[in-house]
Amino acid sequence: MAAAILRAALRRSRPAAAALLHHRPLPSSRSLPPLPSLGRSSPLLSRFPGSAGFVYSTVADESTAPVKPKGKARKNPMKQSRFDFTKVDAALLPTVILVGRPNVGKSALFNRFIRRREALVYNTPGDHVTRDIREGVAKLGDLRFRVLDSAGLETAATSGSILARTADMTGNVLARSQFAIFLIDVRDGLQPLDLEVGQWLRRHASGIHTIVAMNKSESLDEHGVLTAAAGEAHRLGFGDPVAISAETGLGMAELYETLRPLFEDYMFQLTNNGLNQDDPNSEAETEAHEGDESKLPLQLAIVGRPNVGKSTLLNTLLQEQRVLVGPEAGLTRDSIRTQFQFDNRTVYLVDTAGWMERSGKEKGPASLSVVQSRKNLMRAHIVALVLDGEKIAKSKSSMNHPEVLIARQAIEEGRGLVVIVNKMDLLRENRPLFDKVIDAVPKEIQTVIPQVTGIPVVFMSALEGRGRIAVMRQVIDTYEKWCLRLSTSRLNRWLRKVMSRHSWKDSATQPKVKYFTQVKARPPTFVAFMSGKVQLSDTDIRFLTKSLKEDFDIGGIPIRVVQRSIPRKETVKSNSRNTGPRINTRMRTDKRTTVCEPTTS
Question: What are the chain's domains?
Answer without folding.
Answer: 95-271 (3.40.50.300), 298-355+367-483 (3.40.50.300), 488-502+511-566 (3.30.300.20)
